[in-house]
Design brief:
267 residues; alpha+beta; 2,3-Dihydroxybiphenyl 1,2-Dioxygenase, domain 1; 8-stranded mixed β-sheet; 4 helices; 16% helix
């Protein structure tokens, strides 16, 4: 994980339209919407309000009145992996979706309008990792960062970084910065010379039941306390809290199996 922060105000607020390629939103599609609201509400202090319903029942999570994430209900007959999905900003989602296809990716949903909020598509890169594309209108994306309960970072876990990094660079215009290490295959993706996401090649360490996938990191005040609370709420610990160069990090899953990470900033 590489440290990065969005364009936040003095209290963590973000208001401006994101530069194309910048992660601007995270969304989760689940089978049990009410139970999932209860879990994340207790874990992060989120409250919820209805959002656009184009893809079925959908709520936006709020922290101190700011929108931070979305959670939707999967149709009963759709047996898809339950996973957090980052949305990457675009000025023209239709053009971006076409570029995804031309570069070897696929588009599974859209492009379609989400009421007055904006326009979206959901696609996957050539390795199969799913991501969203968001063209903002009324809804600019995550409204606050840099405080506990908010998305802090998005990282692609894949077999190897080089080829898939070229895909994202071509589609979204990222600048690449390989992290030189004898024992790590990592590329930081930059927008306007600022790191916004990472690609981590982990080879056969990828979970067999998941394959390449994006991982969202959520900020917490105390990683150990958050992990203990998560297990009390019915979540699962995949990697217990550990110290890294960017703070204390744990990898966990919610009761439906959606994987995410908790990160505590260094003190």
């Amino acid at each position: 994980m590489t440290e990065a922060r969005g364009s936040a105000g003095p209290n963590g607020e973000t208001h401006a339209r994101r530069t194309p390629g910048t992660p601007c939103w995270v969304s989760l599609m689940v089978h049990g919407l009410a139970a999932t609201e209860e879990f994340y509400g207790a874990l992060f202090g989120w409250e919820f309000e209805p959002g656009p319903q184009q893809l079925g029942p959908y709520v936006r999570a709020l922290l101190d009145g700011y929108e931070v994430a979305g959670i939707g209900q999967l149709p009963a007959d759709r047996h898809l992996p339950v996973a957090w999905t980052p949305y990457l900003a675009s000025d023209d989602v239709d053009l971006t979706a076409e570029t995804v296809r031309l570069c070897g990716g696929t588009i599974g949903v859209g492009p379609l309008d989400a009421a007055e909020a904006g326009r979206l598509a959901i696609g996957s890169d050539p390795s199969g990792a799913v991501f969203g594309i968001w063209q903002a209108a009324a809804h600019l994306g995550t409204g606050i960062t840099g405080v506990p309960g908010t998305p802090a970072w998005n990282e692609l876990l894949t077999f190897e970084s080089a080829s898939v990094a070229k895909f994202y660079e071509t589609v979204f215009g990222y600048e690449e910065e390989p992290v030189v290490s004898a024992d790590s295959d990592y590329v930081a993706l930059h927008v306007d010379s600022h790191p916004v996401a990472g690609i981590h090649g982990v080879g056969h360490a990828l979970p067999r039941d998941r394959g390449p996938h994006w991982m969202t990191y959520f900020e917490v005040a105390d990683a150990d306390a958050a992990v203990a609370h998560l297990t009390e709420l019915g979540g699962h610990v995949l990697k217990p809290p550990r110290d890294t160069a960017h703070g204390r990090v744990a990898t966990v899953a919610d009761p439906e199996g959606a994987r995410f990470s908790l990160t505590q900033n260094p003190r």
